[in-house]
Amino acid sequence: MPKKPKILVFESNAELAKAAAVIFRDSCKAAVARRGLFSVALSGGKTPAALYAALAAPPFRDAVRWRETHLFWGDERCCPPDDKESNFHTAFVNLISKIDIPDDNVHRIQGEVCQVEPVTAAALYEEELLSFFKSERPAFDLVLLGLGADGHTLSVFPGSARPNPGKLVTIGKDQLGLWRISLTIEAVSSSAKAIFLVSGKEKAAILKDVLDGKKGLPAAEVDLANGELIWLADKEAAGLI
Ligand code: 6PG
After folding, report:
1. Rounded to the nearest whole angstrom, what is the distance from the C-alpha of residue 34 to the centroid of ligand 1?
2. Ligand 1 atom nearest to 47, measured from its CA
3. Are 8 and 233 within 8 A, CB to CB?
4. pLDDT digits (tens, 9 = 90+) for 81-129
5. CA-based angle 235:238:240, to the nearest 5?
6. Which has the closest alpha carbon to 93: 82, 109, 101?
7. DSSP class per residue in 105-128
8. Partners of 171 in the beta sheet?
9. How far, in Å, from the CA of 31 to the mean position of ligand 1?
10. Confidence of residue 4 (pLDDT cuts 50, 70, 90)
11. Residue 83 to residue 123: CA distance in whole angstroms
């Protein structure tokens, strides 16, 4: 019987971002106390920008151990890192450019390589994950996830071919036919904690479908074997649940 996910509803996206920043800060504190470092996979799209901005300002900027924090990405668009569509770019502008984090702690997916050679870029990222986690399954301390209006998460879209078991990184085309690189759903299953950030009334119908367990929706397939999955939604997105 799948575990019932925890659902937290907030008055606004700003409140949601603040709650997510508290989870980020506390996950970092616990991970650094336990093993001296904190690994987190950032999500893409627009929703996390408010969280990144909260983390880049007091009190969170000064509470998070950035020098012990390792940033990864759940997925990336195949474009240069300075492209406004790049998930790295969103995190760089709102967070990375404002904190004291060593360059080596920023494990960017090379979108510019993916533009030319998606398979090579995916292999490079898989290599980076395997060498950092020294295991065939990354055990992130925290994974941030978004929810697309079609039920996708990361860049795993409904109807996309499922990768072979054990695969950590996959490539595929998005709704606009643009190449993306993504962690597989399986790759996040060993994480200690994953939080979905869902904001806006345009997500209300899909959030209900996902939480009702509707078939064929990648976001509904996220299942942490021994970790904690929490849904953070603002009131608009939670309007139908
Ligand atoms: C991406 C994502 C994707 C995103 C959702 C929600 O690269 O687009 O990682 O999974 O999280 O599409 O996007 P918004 O936050 O922009 O609604």
Report:
1. 31
2. 15
3. yes
4. 999 999 999 999 999 999 999 999 999 999 999 999 999 999 999 999 9
5. 125
6. 82
7. GB----HHHHHH-HHHHHHHHHHH
8. 181
9. 26
10. confident
11. 22
pLDDT per residue over 172-181, tens digit each?
999 889 999 9
Unique residue bearing structure tokens 């502008």: 93
Residue closest by Cα to atom 5 of ligand 1: 148
| Stated pTM of the model | 0.97
The Cα–Cα gap between 125 and 108 comes to: 8
Of the pLDDT bands very low, low, confident and very high (cuts 50, 70, 90), residue 1 is: low
Q: Is the pLDDT of residue 46 over 60?
A: yes
